[in-house]
Amino acid sequence: MKPPVRLSGIGVAHSPGDGRGDRPGSRLSTALSALPQGASPVRLFHPIEKMAFLAGYDALSLAGVALPVGGDGIGIALGVDEGIDGIKARYYQEVLNDGPLGASPMAFPFTTPNTIAARLCILLDLRGESLTVCGGSLSGAQAIGLAMQTLREGRSGGVLAGGATSVEPEFLDALCRLGRPDGGRPRCGACLLLLEPQASAGEADERVELIGYAEGFGGDEIRDAVQACLEDAGLFPAQVRSVRVASMRDSRVLREALRRMGAKAPIVRSPASNLYSASFPAAVAEAATQAANGAPGPVLIVGMDCLAGASAALVRGGGRR
Amino acid sequence: MISPLNPDGDRERFWSSLCAGTTSVGQIRSFDASAYPCRVAAEVSRESLREAGAETEPALSMAGAAFQLALDHAGMRTDGSDPGRAGVIVGTVLGGTVSGERYLRAKTASEDEVVKGLEQYPLRRIAASLARKAGFSGPVLTVSTACASGTDAIGIGYRKIASGCADVIVAGGVDAICEFSFSGFCALKVLTPDAVRPFSRNRRGLALGEGAAFLVLERETTAAQRGATVLGHVAGYASRSDAVHLTAPHREGRGLSAAAVAALRDGGCGPHEIEYVSAHGTGTLYNDWMETKAIKSALGDHARAVPISSVKAALGHAFGAAGAMEAAVCLLAIRDGIVPPTANFEEPDPECDLDFVPNLARRVTVRTALSVSAGFGGQNAALLIRGGA
Q: Which residue, B14, B28, B10, is CA-closest to B326?
């Protein structure tokens, strides 16, 4: 059993509909105007950037962190995958159309996956660790896993962790025809959580914690991830009070794995399961919000990806165990 | 490791060529670069990758070959008989972008979408393919932190082992040259028209490179149980963000210095213990200025005493693979007591006034080395590597 990690801020931003163009609108203007350097909305080019910024800003603000952060006390772990492929495709299409003159020095820097984390670091002045992972619909889960490890080892005072995705048609139609991304058409969104080291004992009644995380890969990936997550938290399967599925994949294998382990908790699919890279953090956020409101825990969150395997995390609310 | 110096994976040939100051930067052959003002790069010969099939994504071919070489070198079997939980961590910036290029070209040329080969495109495909092939059960991660990807992949692997999340992690990086990235760097005007000259006053920019490199990381006890020869230890790691600009480094090297200091602290190592620094050394004006300042800031007075070299004059800049290749260079330097030179060094730059081991390899006892990487988005990472004894 390893020490829990405190979840002290949540930020979620997503498109209302099919993912074609997010309109964060006034919330974005408010957030940007609150930054001392006065970042202007025109400096945010892409929906994924806008939503990730808004989610990061909300998570830090909710936790009472003064902005800009400054110093290397807070880092970022962000999951981003096919979310940037539209940017890449549009950039290269211009090169195909116009040759070398079509290559835009303004657009090209936005084609690397770590751009979104970098933009958040610049806007919020986060100088700690900056890690970007690409695990399809598990991207955000894997980012949370890295953040938990960093915090448990005492390497950081806080990590803004989660995922962001922005779905665009260039590659998605073809990837869907190949059976990916999992289970259908994802939508635009970002979810970031501010994770901090274990809270002091005096705050125990208010805290919401991530108490376990694990990954699985190969034929028994779901079972392995769930078992290792329970071990990480020092829990038995029967102690899990509910299960949230954070992906669009069929959950029959998960259901069967839990039955064999002796877990009898109800399984629900997260409403955010179509947020792709952000789906897992968003499911964690849902569970955390419910835990803060007194819902029984712990809650097991399980995500799956056709290439990246499976991830599982456990959330519980403090003082109501 | 697969690099332009050893497309067949011959590690000793790679090392002897590197120490001899051989450079692999030449005219681009993997795509038609005739319309671009710069036309050089350090390529792995495509003929050497043909074995994997003409349609195979070059990054996947190189990663597969380097991954298998690493397992063989470590004496690691992949038939399920090796005990413990094994995983793969791949650092890559471009992943299967060559496949993405092919898809977009085909789509542009015809009304019908041609999806053949596109399954090799997703960034996480490489790590998943390697893990499946080896029968590993996880963790399986793809790290994309620009030019620090390979260093971060090894650092994260080191932490996974240290924390008990895995018994074995094969960590490294891969990237392949493609028109997509070449056109972008050309537009940013950071490519050299001829040779790469890191830290030299007349440097004119970087050359793209490619390749793959992987290290097998495991606990000392696990390696001993298998009777494996321990080549070295990852003793410390850190990542830090500049938080200033999307493409330009912090002018004083704030993030890189902070990463180096944190890696030293992580390894319980004082600056004076560092006997070799493998520099990022891209050969661009601002990187080399920034890096010199960062090394001075991190190592203090010792910065003037330690040999520092960049292998990018020889290998080009292989993005996601660069940090992993440079970690391997540190291990070879420790093994043989030789530090490779900074090739093509012509004129000292007054702003780059450290010992950059110009042009000739040097015999030096190296017990502890520091490998540093920096990248777009203000990414910085540092690895502390110690000898195997």
A: B14
Dump pLDDT digits (tens) for A111-130. Answer: 999 999 999 999 999 999 99
Q: What is the mean pLDDT of residues A256-260?
A: 92
Q: Of B35, B141, B377, which is closest to A118 when you measure between CB atoms?
A: B377
Q: Do B377 and A175 touch (CB under 8 A)?
A: no
Residue B110 touches partner A, C-beta closer than 8 Å: no
If asked whether residues A219 and A128 sit together in one domain, one would say: no
> For residues B103 and B256, what is the distance between their CA atoms, to the nearest angstrom?
37
Domain stop point among A196, A216, A239: A196
Give the count of alpha carbons within 13 A of B237, CB side only: 23
Mean pLDDT of all residues in B288-306:
98
Query: Structural domain of residue A174, as residue ranges?
Result: 5-196
Please give the tally of structural domains in chain B: 1
If you measure CA to CA, which chain B residue comes closest to A101? Answer: B187
- Hey, are the CB atoms on B144 and A118 less than 8 Å from each other? no
B131 shares contact with chain A (CB less than 8 Å) = yes
Could you report the predicted ipTM of this complex, rounded to two decimals?
0.96
Average pLDDT over residues B205-228: 93
Same domain, residue pair A192 and A265: no
* In a shared domain, residues A71 and A183: yes
Structural domains of chain A, count? 2
- What's the CATH code of the domain at B45? 3.40.47.10
CATH number at residue A158: 3.40.47.10
Q: What is the pLDDT of residues A287-315, one digit of tens each?
A: 999 998 888 889 999 999 988 999 999 99
Element (H, E) at B186: helix B179-187
Q: Is residue B6 part of a domain?
A: no
Burial of B268 (C-beta count, 10 Å sphere; 0-12/13-18/19+): exposed
End-to-end CA distance of chain B: 23
Calculate how close chain B gets to A114, using CA atoms only, in Å: 5
